[in-house]
Amino acid sequence: MGTRYGFIYAHPDDETFLSACLIRELADQGEAPVLLLATRGDAGRQGLERAANREELAQLREEEMKAAAVVLGLADVEHLGWPDGQLATIDFEELVAGVIAFIQKHELEILFSFAEDGGNGHPDHVTISKATTAAVLSGQCPSVRKLYYASSAALRANGHQSSIVVDTEANWKMKAAALQAHATQHVAIAKYFGDLTAFPEERRFEAFVLGWQDGMMWPKPEIAAQLEE
Ligand SMILES: [Zn+2]
């Protein structure tokens, strides 16, 4: 086993939207990437037509996540189980403690999460980004060497360049299969990616900005668009 990679997001499907092909590449290299989700995704209006109530929806989305994890090659998926849509209202220190525990348990070295704008401004995305950064800065996660943020409009506006860029074309069928595994989310998926049988040129790249490395926020961007050796 080489480097230990962890992905930390808010909802089941965030990992596939932003980082399906990166996760798959790591798995194909023999790594064992792991995923932490803050919620079980039980608040969406989508999917309630298939579930009697929120608990049923949460179970359905966990099952979908398990199926997606197989497609992506994730070695482990954990859910903190905070209420979907309300992450910004819960005790922040408790949320951070859950992230720290996950990082410590897996002795993670390289982390990926949302940028501070949450990519699309979703309060859950913003909050888990802040919690991940707080965990890294807490001094309680000495295994962590790098924290990457999924590239976002705010990061680009501030001049932050991506140092990991994954072209999804070669693995698009895999990414489409992982998206389809999140079946309750089909409306949002179609809105963002269009018809999954066609490669979405405008959603071609998964890109990540190095936000923290070895004690320093916003280190100089890495030169090569390469994963860890
Ligand atoms: Zn989300």
CATH class call: Alpha Beta
**CATH-assigned homologous superfamily:** LmbE-like
Ends distance = 12 Å
The largest sheet is: 8 strands, mixed
Gross morphology is globular
Helix proportion: 25-40%
Specify the number of helices. 7
Strand-residue proportion: 15-25%
Please provide the count of β strands.
8
CATH topology term: Rossmann fold
Mean pLDDT: 94
Secondary structure category: alpha/beta
- Output the helix-strand order: EHEHEHEHEHEHHEE
Bound molecules: zinc ion
**Architecture, according to CATH?**
3-Layer(aba) Sandwich
Helix/strand layout:
Blueprint: E1 5-9, H1 14-28, E2 34-39, H2 54-72, E3 76-82, H3 92-106, E4 110-113, H4 123-137, E5 146-150, H5 153-157, E6 164-167, H6 172-181, H7 186-193, E7 205-213, E8 216-217
This protein binds zinc ion.
Residues 10-11, 14, 122, 125 line the site of zinc ion.
Protein name: GlcNAc-PI de-N-acetylase
GO molecular function: hydrolase activity, acting on carbon-nitrogen (but not peptide) bonds, in linear amides
Pfam family, one: PIG-L
